[in-house]
TrEMBL record:
Protein name from the UniProt record: Ribosomal RNA methyltransferase FtsJ domain-containing protein
Organism, scientific name: Paenibacillus marchantiophytorum
Alphabetical list of InterPro entries matching this protein: RNA_MeTrfase_FtsJ_dom, SAM-dependent_MTases_sf
Domain annotation Ribosomal RNA methyltransferase FtsJ: ranges: 187-274
Ranges that cross the membrane: none
Pfam family, one: FtsJ
Length: 345
């Protein structure tokens, strides 16, 4: 009998189709059922759980932000019976040894707008947390858990699954990673670099010198300065006055094509230029002499014509002689764009 593994997948709004295309490339016979148009979908992979998960992690689809396993499904009753079913499922998971005592357990509940249920997601979390504390003798946590219980309430059904955080591609509910907005934050764009740092597991503070191309008003530059780097920022537009006079910052108020840098001057290159990807790629390629061998590059790529896979090919054709791709991912904070994590050869 063929095994089937079921997940709920989430992408950024408008990109579910691309995530599905990528999954279909790994497992051509996968079946898809849309839950939230262009964003959330159920998918059934015709393979066992381990094989499915290994493939999804090793060939991680660019547009798949988050997955949660589906271990059990119920028709929605829109009464407290839905919560009772979930409580019983958790007790059974404990009895079966799938979840044990002394662990950190996060419960993430997502509910579609159309679900129209009389209870709030928080009520479900509170009910399961009571069992986690009282019956399982484990600790309910929000982040840094050993296990995640993922509950999804669609218009017609309740889905639940149990997983390790790394197996969800993101340990944030639905992959919607949130950062606190600082009072004096220079730009929202800063969140993109913060997310790249987390998602790609990069420690910017081990770098010493960074080049920021398309830097204004300076959100990315400010993060790199906070991490202790010396930063060279290039942008014809003005940097935030808050950054001016910083002894670790050198600003070229110029087009990136008009700047002369030193060979191997930087160990990190970042670029967040909202520009045609091919032109941006050529500008970056022309400045790559300034990045040391082994240096890291983080580059945002604009999706101008909604042909993401062609755009990836085009930009890599320009960059790949000098840079090799570690990961391409559409981050939660990317809108009509995606982020490349590369390394200088
Ligand atoms: C999205 S903004 C960058 C935001 C920045 N990362 C932040 O955190 O504040 C894009 C920037 O790219 C700059 N840009 C566009 N073309 C450029 C070029 N040829 N050379 C340098 N900068 C350029 C624009 O002036 C704009 O300030």
């Amino acid at each position: 009998m063929t095994q089937t593994t079921t997940y709920i997948g989430t992408s950024n709004h408008g990109f579910a189709q691309y995530a599905q295309d990528e999954i279909r490339k790994i497992f051509p016979m996968t079946k898809f059922y849309l839950l939230v148009p262009t964003e959330v979908f159920l998918f059934e992979i015709p393979a066992g759980a381990e094989e499915s998960l290994t493939a999804l992690k090793e060939q991680e689809p660019m547009f798949l932000r988050h997955v949660q396993p589906v271990d059990q499904v119920w028709e929605l009753s829109r009464t407290d019976a839905d919560i009772e079913n979930l409580k019983e499922w958790l007790r059974e998971a404990y009895r079966a040894g799938l979840i044990g005592s002394g662990q950190k357990i996060a419960t993430q509940v997502r509910k579609e707008e159309r679900a129209n249920v009389p209870y709030a997601p928080f009520t479900i979390k509170a009910a399961l947390d009571d069992i986690i504390v009282g019956e399982i003798q484990s600790e309910p946590v929000v982040r840094y858990s050993d296990f995640i219980i993922s509950v999804y309430i669609s218009a017609a059904k309740v889905f639940v699954g149990l997983s390790k955080p790394a197996d969800n591609l993101s340990d944030w509910s639905g992959g919607a990673i949130r950062f606190m907005k600082e009072e004096d934050q220079i730009s929202r764009a800063k969140f993109k670099l913060l997310e790249a740092e987390q998602r790609f597991g990069i420690d910017f503070s081990v770098a010493r010198t960074a080049l920021d191309i398309g830097a204004a008003p300076g959100g990315w530059t400010s993060l790199l300065l906070e991490r202790g780097l010396r930063v060279t920022a290039i942008d014809p537009a003005a940097m935030s006055p808050r950054l001016l006079g910083n002894p670790n910052l050198k600003i070229y108020k110029k087009n990136a094509g008009d700047v002369k840098l030193k060979d191997n001057e930087f160990d990190l290159l970042v670029c967040d230029m909202s520009w045609d990807p091919r032109q941006m790629g050529r500008l970056v390629a022309d400045l790559l002499y300034s990045l040391q061998s082994g240096g890291t590059a983080i580059i945002t790529v604009k999706l101008m014509h909604k042909k993401p896979f062609q755009t990836v090919k085009d930009i890599l054709r320009i960059l790949e002689p000098s840079l090799f791709l570690i990961k391409a991912k559409q981050l939660f904070h990317n809108r009509e764009e995606f982020t490349l994590y590369l390394q200088k050869t």
